[in-house]
Amino acid sequence: MPELPEAETIVRALRSRLPGARVERVSVRHADVLAPDLTPRRLASRLRGRRIEDVTRRGKNVVLVFEDELRLVINLGMTGRVVTTDAPRAAEMRHVAVRFELDDGRAILYDDIRRFGCLDLRDAEGWHRRDAELGLEPLSDAFTPESLWALTRGSTTPIRNFLLDQRRIAGVGNIYANEALFRAGIRPTRRSHRVTRREASALRDHLRDVLQESIDNRGTTISDYRDAFGESGGFVQWLRVYDRAGEPCVVCGTPIRRVVLTNRSAFYCPVCQR
DNA sequence: AACGCGCCCTGTCCGC
DNA sequence: TGCGGACAGGGCGCGT
């Protein structure tokens, strides 16, 4: 569920409220959200007494940076939420998997209805390895028209699938992949290496635009996404194709189509996207 | 070895 | 009203 804009919205709120606080106690209610080699006991013992220094994002991951370069890396999966208990909406979290009690009386809740999310603990070296597995940050200077063109040329998979691969570009999920392809006039089923240089350049620009616009609207809530205050995002009203099968294209009026690519829906206008 | 598929899990919605 | 099936912002491990 949460893609880059949703993770970024959460990170911005946490960054202004968490640094300086210390973890006093960790309680794990659903151990299946922990990384395979991470036990509840080890998570608790390594975080107990540690101070939060910063909160950052990499791709769709929310990263709590502790003293001594220790990082709690949170992948939200489809329904993961990170909410602090001082938010009025915190009481609505009914699927809390992990609770981090802080020394200031607050707690951080990791809530996850479907429990597809994953919490991992990484030291400096372990984080370096994880970071290297992830692709370009689409909002960074390194994500240039040339860099996207170079990547698309080397792949035969449909461009929608290409955009979802976190090893190439980190942070794009199904909503923003479909929205950016609509804006760029490229059909989701097009093989990546058939995307022209000019189209790759437009796709790069539109991807950055749609991600930034969504961040400005605090992300997209279809049903489950909530920010760090437990509030919904406001970008859903600006979606042009995602989840709009049968509705008229905002440009030409043709009904939007839905197709399934590797078990996931893709949405497009058959006239505007070639 | 890049790519597609099935699966993890809970909740909601739709047709019968 | 109940029941079964399809579907949902993701990602891993497996086969080919």
Provide a descriptive summary of the structure in words.
28% of the residues lie in helices and 21% in strands. The protein has 274 residues and is α+β, with helices and mostly antiparallel strands. It has two domains: 4-132, Alpha-Beta Barrel (N-terminal domain of MutM-like DNA repair proteins); 145-268, Helicase, Ruva Protein, domain 3 (Orthogonal Bundle), CATH 1.10.8. A four-stranded antiparallel β-sheet has the order 1-6-7-5, with helices on one face. Strands 2-3-4-8 form a four-stranded antiparallel β-sheet. Strands 9-10 form a two-stranded antiparallel sheet. Helix 1 (4-15) packs parallel to helix 7, helix 4 packs across helix 7 (197-216) and helix 6 packs across helix 7. The chain binds a DNA duplex (16 and 16 nucleotides) through residues 1-3, 6, 32, 60, 75-80, 95, 112-118, 155-157, 161, 164, 166, 173-176, 219-225, 242-243, 261-265.
Helix content: 25-40%
Broad CATH class of the largest domain? Alpha Beta
How confident overall, as mean pLDDT? 98
Write down the overall geometry.
Answer: globular
* Terminal-residue CA separation: 27 Å
The CATH superfamily of the largest domain is MutM-like, N-terminal
Topology pattern, helix = H, strand = E: HEHEEEEEEEHHHHHEE
Beta strand count: 10
Radius of gyration: 19 Å
- Strand order, main sheet: write it out: 1-6-7-5
Domain unit count: 2
Sheet having the most strands: 4 strands, antiparallel
